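INFO  loader      accepted 1 record
INFO  loader      residues=510
INFO  predictor   begin
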Amino acid sequence: MKSVHVSAALLLSMVSAVAQPPAVADPGHCSANPQLGDLTLKPSWNGWGAGISNLRRQGSAAAQLNGPWLGELKLKWAFGFPGAKGAPGLPTVAGGRVFAGADTGDVYSLDAATGCVYWSYHADAGVRAAITIGRSEKPGESLVYFGDLKANVYAIDADTGAEVWKVSVDAHAAARITGSPQLYEDRLYVPVSSLEEVSAADPAYACCTFRGSVAALDAQSGHMIWQTFIIPDAPKPTTKNAKDTQQFGPSGGGVWNSPTVDPKRRALYVGTGDAYTQPAPKTTDSIVALGLDDGRMLWSVEDTPNDAWVTACIARANKENCPQDAGPDYDFGSSPMLIDLHNGKSLLIAGQKSGIVWAHDPDRKGAVVWKTSVSATPPEADGEIVWGGTADDSAAYFGVRSGGVVSVALENGERGWVTPIKAAPGRRPGQDAAVSSIPGYIFSNGWDGVLRILSSGDGKIVWSFDTVQEFKTVSGVPAKGGVMSSAGPSIAGGMIFAGAGTVLLAFGVE
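INFO  predictor   done
INFO  writer      dumping tokens
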């Protein structure tokens, strides 16, 4: 995917994920299906960021893991996804269950302790976004929210898997939802991205007409309350390319990441993608603030100007749709993290594909407080920081595509420790996946299929598990681990859940 751009090959592979096979019968059913009840009674990892600030951090009480226990982690169960071609989305943990989507369009509710299936639901297209859980207005009922690769948003009964509502938030043929919807105050905030950059590789394609957006839906009915386009001006015909195909603009600004909610300032923050056409609008490659209540754009700060790019720019031929002065493709694939400092101030910390970590001040219309490069050389379009980081009280931590994990001080942006990570022999390096954390430890998934735990104090690797192997699954489906390139692990209730290859793995202590 493109920042989801991680590579052209991945971009192209995602196109095939839209056409879905028929729903697959549930393998490995649970013997009973008790009602979820009060979701707050059990530890959870809800949605992409484990909270509205998108810190991807689990506290000690909910994690129920500490240093001495990490060395005793064992594989508890493995779940194989029927018909899947790639790794599942980030697992959501709530009420003693694990919810995860697959590229087949199937969404599963699994028992967190055993991996047996309570129910499955078949969406219209692949589901790679993390799932969000919330309470229904009906007593005792909870809802499962997610988006698919056709830009549909769903609300499903969390107990039974029955569809409550489904709405489309963008009719563009290339529109999709890659970031997890964020739930707050009975509104569901949905980010919209696209793969129109892939479509633009065809010189006969009229490039480009997609504009990224955020839509606010009523969480109970699915009714759209507002939708704000990252590029305010609608695309219009411009020139024709060398193949006499009509061109359009402005376009781009996809929102690949889960929105970050700021109740104090009544704001919502997203990182935006690059432009597809020139001139690049100033809201692309930016951190953007929208009003929670009405979607009004409060401010935007462009961290990389003049960045217009499509996949035609990397083709050996048929570059007709590539902007004349193509940019570096340095969009924001990861969510901004809203962090309150000890001095009472707040920062928005965002990692960019450029390899730069940015600190923006939400009280000064996003003014840049500091920026720090974690990359030795300017990265290619694939990017250096792709899916995001995590943070504690003193530092932010990011995995980098060149292979490693780094720490950056929150107060001034100074680089702390850097841990280079060499890929397993014969495998591709890179720590593109979003990292996760508990007090004292960082969790990082690798392109080489290895899950690693590092000390947040010095970056030392304290535990690792190689997923590149065949697993006997509770679903009875043959499955093998492998690439872990986007979704990081989820930690809750003494368990670690991580997707790799075509399998979901659950680790715990005896």
